[in-house]
Amino acid sequence: MNVYDGQRIAAMLKARGMVETDDLSDADLIILNTCAVREKATNKVYSALGRIRRAKKESALFGIVGCVARESGGDAFKRIPELNFVLGPQSYHRLPEIIDNPDIKLLNIDLTGLEKFDELPQMTTSPNVAYIPVQEGCNHCCTYCIVPYTRGREISRPFKDVVADTLNASKTGAIEICFLGQNVNGYKYTDENGNVYRLSDLIKYAATLPEIHRIRFTSSYPTEMTDDLIEMFGMEEKLLPFLNMPIQSGSPRVLKLMNRPDDLDTYRTIVNKLKSVRPDIQISSDFIVGFPDETDDDFEQTLNIAKEIKYINSYSFKYSPRPHTVAALMKNQISEQIKSVRLQRLDGQLNDNQREFNMSCIGKEMVCLCEGIDKTGKHLVFRTPYMQQCIVESVDANIASLQKIKITDANKASLRGEIIK
Ligand code: 5AD
Ligand code: SF4
């Protein structure tokens, strides 16, 4: 979502004739787009602000947008008096005001809903992958999560607006569509005639566009994987056989404390249904270790579920107490040291899963999407249908973006392959 927000902000500034610079000391406008989901991210924002404050030229306008802006509000001005603006995740369409009135201080952290989607220009050129937000906010109240506070309650965008963005992306170079939302599979929009649209309808529409070859969506809440959506994996070949469906913990007791679905059998049933319509589907998850009151035994259950579901690519985090959340006030907070040991053990398991899956791909042929040339300048980087990185010895950036590739080697982090001529 932040990548998307950053792209929209950049498109808006470009439409006003501004150009990008890599040189901080040369910039006239500096915007930090921020994430507040863990404390570490928030701390990074403040250290970056300190760096920017020292490096920027005197006249440069400078501010923060996104979730840290919403969380900090007016305090941000107290901590960094040079800031010109502090705009929450639903207010960055107000940036032009600050450009036109450089002397004002602008604070807006209201949750205004969908306004920003209407007021920002469409991106005129898409990269191969177009991120398209379908909803914003979250109605789930996981006790550790700051998102319902920073992004607000769920609002789904009108079906016709998402359709228009998808069509536009397909006409301006997108090959892959990634539908986005904090709770993307909660997408539900009822139009003026009472027609109800779900994420499955958006997928069906995107699949009709000849330019679009790959469709995916993130991030999904397990119990909102409704049958119509699961069926899409069997019906629409363009939907990639890869799904991020976070479980967070393998302990029903901890899941209850997290206010997450705590019946592991329900989760297993969803995975099995997905596999029955799309046998090659692979799942990834997010995990939190060291949630308040998590015992060694609870943690062992998390290791077990990671092994059982064979997640192929996951994100794991130490629990981080966040303001405005219930869990931050819970008793039995876990020490940093125990969190670190548990994270290391879980990462060991997740890495084994990932390596095993990557190795199982050797010898297979997959249609992959080119992302560009890597940092060494010697290889092309592709994404497989499972979103693995695949490196190819070629720098011919003029080849078509979709290539059939034979996987020749693999390690934990990535694959290597050759283009099949
Ligand atoms: N501490 C640690 N991880 C968190 N996440 C969300 N809130 C917290 C927190 N307070 C993780 C969850 C979520 C991902 C986006 O970030 O795993 O799925
Ligand atoms: Fe946060 Fe995701 Fe839970 Fe919503 S479903 S509260 S975004 S962790």
Secondary structure: elements and pairs:
Layout: H1 2-15, E1 29-34, H2 39-55, E2 61-66, H3 67-72, H4 75-79, E3 85-87, H5 95-100, E4 106-108, H6 115-119, E5 129-133, E6 135-136, H7 147-150, E7 155-156, H8 159-171, E8 176-180, E9 188-190, E10 196-198, H9 199-207, E11 214-218, H10 227-235, E12 242-244, H11 252-257, H12 264-277, E13 282-284, E14 286-289, H13 296-309, E15 315-318, H14 336-360, E16 365-373, E17 380-383, E18 389-392, E19 402-410, E20 414-419
Parallel strand pairs: 1-2, 2-3, 3-4, 5-8, 8-11, 12-13, 14-15, 18-20
Antiparallel strand pairs: 6-7, 9-10, 16-17, 16-19, 17-18, 19-20
Helix pairs in contact: 10-12, 13-14
The structure holds 5'-deoxyadenosine and iron/sulfur cluster (SF4).
Describe this entry's structure for a reader.
- With 421 residues, the protein is of the alpha/beta class.
- It folds into three domains: 2-108, Methylthiotransferase, N-terminal domain (Rossmann fold, 3-Layer(aba) Sandwich); 115-286 and 319-330, Alpha-Beta Horseshoe (pyruvate-formate lyase- activating enzyme), CATH 3.80.30.20; 365-419, OB fold (Dihydrolipoamide Acetyltransferase, E2P).
- The protein is built from 14 helices and 20 strands.
- The chain has helices at 2-15, 39-55, 67-72, 75-79, 95-100, 115-119, 147-150, 159-171, 199-207, 227-235, 252-257, 264-277, 296-309, 336-360; strands at 29-34, 61-66, 85-87, 106-108, 129-133, 135-136, 155-156, 176-180, 188-190, 196-198, 214-218, 242-244, 282-284, 286-289, 315-318, 365-373, 380-383, 389-392, 402-410, 414-419.
- The protein has a five-stranded mixed beta barrel with strand order 16-17-18-20-19. Strands 1-2-3-4 form a four-stranded parallel sheet, sandwiched between helices. It has a three-stranded parallel sheet with strand order 5-8-11, with helices on one face.
- A hairpin with a 6-residue loop joins strand 16 (365-373) and strand 17 (380-383).
- Helix 10 runs parallel beside helix 12.
- It is globular and about 60 Å long.
- It starts with a helix and ends with a strand.
- It binds 5'-deoxyadenosine (5AD) and iron/sulfur cluster.
- 5'-deoxyadenosine (5AD) binds at residues 37-38, 144-145, 246, 248, 286, 288, 317, 319-320, 322.
